[in-house]
Here is the input.
Amino acid sequence: MNRIARIMIVAVALTMGMMARAQAPVIGIAASPGESSQATGNDYVTAVTRAGGIPVLIPASDDPALIEATLAHVDGVLLTGGVDVHPSYYGQEPHPMLGEVNARRDTFEMLLIKRAVERKMPLFGVCRGMQVINVALGGTLWQDIPSQVPGALNHRVAGDSLAIGAHMVTITPGTMSGKVLGVTSLAVNSRHHQAVRDVAPRLRVTGHSPDGMAEMLEGYPALPILAVQWHPENFVAAGDRGAMLRFFTFLVEQSAANRGQSHSHSSGSPTTFGE
Here is the structure.
């Protein structure tokens, strides 16, 4: 094979690779705003990439028009972990053990979730992401598990690795979550002191920790939302190719299926999700 032929083969391969990547779903990761920057964690980017998606950052904003314009350019949304959700969003006064809050992030994510739901866009929430989805759709939270839930497990477990199981989660049979994971239980990490209390309408609990705490939610019926209370992205970044990666693969697959509908309008047939 001569040099020109080899160059042509490499060029074709590169072109095909770029075309395949260009057709991959774009997953918008909601940014966490600070005083001088907006960011997300490396493991979220890694998990979306390994699942076959293209990760981009959705900048935090309180401008509904900007959020709407941004959503027009992504196929699915990932809401990440972070600080506490302010209890005013679910009609409560701050508990003495309420942790750090971020008013800009609360405002942004409430707007983002509600608009994404109106557009029937796939959503995946991680830790705080699960909590804020629940609150945005009308649910409430335990503001501090240790002081409000007697007998609860320690859900804020530190360790040398972010990808070590702290407790088990049992998955409800016959749910979309169970079908996605293909398992009935799994060991998860745990780094939170708040949790879902009253479940929002249009959501249902599909996974519990041994103390009965909600650990997984899904949209029900026909709402493309999946959310977990732990951090699967840490396991994916550490090399997991099983159940933890399937969360992100499912987000990417749902986003691909929903691409045309979510970009064209906010009405129409909902994505099939739940039973």
User: Anything to note?
Assistant: The first strand starts at residue 26 and ends at 30. Residues 75 and 255 are 5 Å apart (CA to CA).
